[in-house]
Specification:
Largest sheet: none
Distance between the termini: 64 Å
Number of helices: 9
Helix content: 55-70%
Number of domains: 1
Mean pLDDT: 88
Shape: extended
Oligomer: single chain
Length: 196
């Protein structure tokens, strides 16, 4: 081995154990989560928004039992995005409404027209909803759950067929209306970042 090769090896060779430790340290930093601290006002606005949004939907269901589909599981995830991370791209109105609408339509279509194999219906519904949201620039992660609920939901959901879309759309609009108020309590005009 030449002198030059030996020097190069000395400067670049790091013992494998040290490489793992160094790599592990930098990898662990990725898992620390969000470092931005919310102000007490932001915490209050998020709490009020989530309480009002989900509370309004639940109240409508209590008053009018026929509206039981106004509260679906994916709205809980939408509430987190809308009220805790209103600046996130996935929390914008186009994403909220478009994501739920497209996903509900796709979920019902998969349930109605694909063979009755849950693995096929469920997988195709969620995967197709994701791609459709990506193509239409309406990605809203809870939309995947909306598509899945259309497939794995109760007989009541299945009996609605495409009628499932209306309560989903109505619920998403209620959450949006509340977000327009609660997210602008501290800073007028801060939500939404964009309408398109």
């Amino acid at each position: 081995m030449s002198e030059q090769q030996r020097k190069q090896e000395e400067t670049t060779a790091v013992p494998w154990t040290r490489r793992i430790l160094i790599s592990g340290r930098s990898e662990r930093r990725r898992y620390h989560g969000q470092r931005v601290r919310a102000t007490p006002g932001q915490l209050l606005a998020a709490w009020l928004g989530a309480f009002a949004g989900i509370g309004l939907l639940a109240s409508a269901v209590a008053l009018f039992p026929g509206l039981d589909l106004l509260v679906i599981g994916s709205f809980g995830a939408s509430a987190v995005l809308l009220y805790a991370a209103p600046r996130a791209p996935f929390a914008q109105p186009r994403n909220l409404i478009g994501g739920h609408l497209i996903s509900a339509l796709i979920g019902v279509t998969c349930y109605r027209y694909l063979p009755d194999l849950s693995m096929l219906q469920e997988g195709v519904a969620v995967a197709t909803a994701i791609v459709a949201m990506m193509l239409t620039h309406t990605v809203h992660p809870p939309g995947g759950a909306t598509a899945l609920i259309a497939v794995i939901g109760s007989e009541h959901i299945h009996s609605l067929g495409y009628g499932y879309v209306m309560p989903v759309l109505t619920g998403a609009l209620v959450l949006l209306m509340v977000a327009l108020v609660s997210n602008n309590l501290l800073e007028a005009g801060s939500y939404p970042d964009r309408w398109d």
